[in-house]
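Memo to structure team: turn this sequence into structure tokens by end of day. - J.P.
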Amino acid sequence: MDGMLSQDEINALLAGMDTSGGGDAGGGDAPAADAPAADASTASGGGSGFVPGEIDESLLTDDEKDAIGEVANISMGSSATTLYSLVNQKVNITTPQVELANWNTVLNNYEKPCVFIQIKYTVGLEGTNILILKERDVMVITDLMMGGDGTNTEGEVGELQLSAISEAMNQMMGAAATSLSTMTGQKVDISPPIATLLDMIDDDPSEISDFLTGTFCRVTFKLQIGDLVDSTLMQLYPIDFAKSLKDTITTDGAEEEAASAPAPAPEAPAPSAAAEMGMPMPDMSMQQGQMGMPQMGMPQMGMGMPQMGMMQPMGMMPQMMGGMNVQPAQFQSFAPGNGAMAAGENIGLIKDVPLEVTVELGRTAKAISDILDFAPGTIIELEKVAGEPVDVLVNGKFVAKGEVVVIEESFGVRVTEIIQ
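Reply from structure team:
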């Protein structure tokens, strides 16, 4: 308090000086020279000492970013519906923003700590997808999933919350995978998500996933859950996986467009070919309703159109239709007995299928209070009288009536009537 340094403080200052040089000035400058390097390491990678490189903006084109944004938009639309069913709150996920980023970008733009959810695509697509949620958002979602009102956000995220958010992300990304299957035309499946709570500052990104050490694709959404959450959801893609998404969608879209394109119409025969076949040349005057008469002011052609009643026979139609091969339709005859034979063959295929046969002595209806009073010796009166035929049911369907008989030491039923 009086401005004097204690002996311990003096010893600490001397211990931090480099006394191997030539004097106090050299020793005092050494820590100052090292200070910027330490600060740079702390600012860029935290305690891990990781220093990310520059963001390479040429890795993704604008078209690729648009395609990735469209995929993310459709996928997250399905995920929002799934999340609504889990938390029973209105869920809104806005249009995504796609950009290139590195580890520094994630550190500077997101709260610490947060929850990383890693999802791997196992079928249809090959790659890794990482979702990042804020710690408070995870607490709200898991509290709603467990029947709370979403306000129990005190404390830290534990194993219970990580397990619950993993299940939520599993269902959400499963719905997203179904949307991707529809878009790509092939089956898409994911592995069970792995959720981890990270403080990010002291973590080495290579321990989370290798692609986080370089430039990657970042897709950012605005997540709103009722009046409880108004936050940001971040999704990270490796560059090669992001490109594969765009290529897959573009290829499938081109194939669908080619498949749906109408077939080109057959070309009409050239006039010279028609003349060589001996066919009369069509006269444009037919459009004016004048059969065989030349149009006013037009010279009459050497081979006029045939007059009404002198039409060419139908045999000439294939030639006039550009050489199409026209044949009469042929239908299979329905010979008597074919259907019965086919039915007999079909029933033979299922003769060995087992069915459950039940014999019902009778039924009755009782109140719950009566059923609770049941005890050994209680007599239950049925709706049938003594000696009345019992019902025979096959797989629950009433098919016959019969009478109870005794065969040696077992009961049996003799069928007396078949119900049509």
